[in-house]
Amino acid sequence: MVSGAAPYDALLLVSFGGPEKPEDVVPFLRNVTAGKNIPDERLVEVGAHYAQFGGRSPINDQNRDFLAAIREDLASNGIDLPVYWGNRNWDPYLVDALGKMKADGITRAAALFTSAYSSYSGCRQYREDLAEAVSDLEGAPRLDKLRAYFNHPGFVESNVDATLAALADLPDDVRREAHLVFVTHSIPEAMNERSGPVGRAYVHQHRAVMDEIGDRVREETGHRYPSALVYCSRSGPPSVPWLEPDVNDHLTTLHNSGVPAAVLVPIGFVSDHMEVIYDLDTEAKATAAELGMACERAATAGVDPRFVAMVRDLLLERAAAERGEDVDRKVVGAVPATWDVCAPGCCANLRGPRPALCGSD
Ligand SMILES: CC1=C(CCC(=O)O)c2cc3nc(cc4[nH]c(cc5[nH]c(cc1n2)c(C)c5CCC(=O)O)c(CCC(=O)O)c4C)C(CCC(=O)O)=C3C
Ligand SMILES: [Fe+2]
């Protein structure tokens, strides 16, 4: 059978994983922070965030919904391809997913990461964990990572509509004076310096998304909302510089300069992860309430049909490229489509080299 997905015989959804019950929280945090320089106080603090939500992260349920939506989208577009799911840090683990794929006779799969941007944490670390997962698995399927999709129209347009909807939810009398506050996960400055093939891709890619959303919101509303890129979820010791400003500090700064309203746009997250429901919906919303600022949070891409259809588009694009055909790589904004195969040293591991899949190194 020749399908649009050839040479692939499967799709693998690669994600972070999260705890599903209180007893999972400590072992999950140990998995995430093994070998990382994260202070104990930070772990206690993050453990309390999970406890506040019954010890259950929303991320796995969101991936289950995403998988169901991807399967339905592929099937209704005539693409008969099994879809698997594995996580770096919690059950179902990557090694189990790959074992199942091998047992099912899968030989070559495309992999979609639930991270839209280039950085060690969002790309190479996943590639390293994939390499580790196949290291003891003779005959494991070959894997190709689908390109970073921060600037794919399916991702950006979902976020544009979510921003417009959140603006519409602000009180009428403050809407025109609102600021857009684009939020992503903070990372160490040194990690940003080494993101992508030439460095700083993490911030550069986020800025491109922020600018494109700002332009499209202006087209729709006739108003250019002032914007900033800010960060949440800083960890690591205080002596190590991470990307700033923190979202709470930024809201305070806006308030002090007389801004009465803000829309939080979590462009760094593809669904409502713990960072979104805790750092934004709980903590940042409380900061805004204390300041007396109106504040709405835009929805994440989640299972927006455009975002789900993007997965099919990226799969078919890469499949065609692997077959040696010319491909039309859909992108919006100022940054061109990113590479299919990561170059040597792309998103360098600052702790030293570890084997990684899906790259030329
Ligand atoms: C760039 C980035 C993404 C986005 C890309 C992607 O999506 O992969 C991301 C996603 C996520 N991060 C998550 C959770 C955690 N991240 C931590 C720690 C860290 N994250 C970092 C960066 C990122 N992280 C970094 C540089 C660290 C320091 C330690 C290290 O260098 O690795 C810690 C340890 C405690 C703490 O320090 O906060 C936890 C618990 C969850 C699950 C959430 C849920 O349960 O819904 C998700 C999706
Ligand atoms: Fe994280």
TrEMBL record:
Known role: Involved in coproporphyrin-dependent heme b biosynthesis. Catalyzes the insertion of ferrous iron into coproporphyrin III to form Fe-coproporphyrin III.
Main location: cytoplasm
Protein origin, superkingdom: Bacteria
Recorded catalytic activity of this chain's protein: Fe-coproporphyrin III + 2 H(+) = coproporphyrin III + Fe(2+)
SUPFAM superfamilies, sorted: Chelatase (SSF53800)
Organism expressing this protein natively: Nocardioides marmorisolisilvae
Protein name: Coproporphyrin III ferrochelatase
Cellular component, GO annotation: cytoplasm
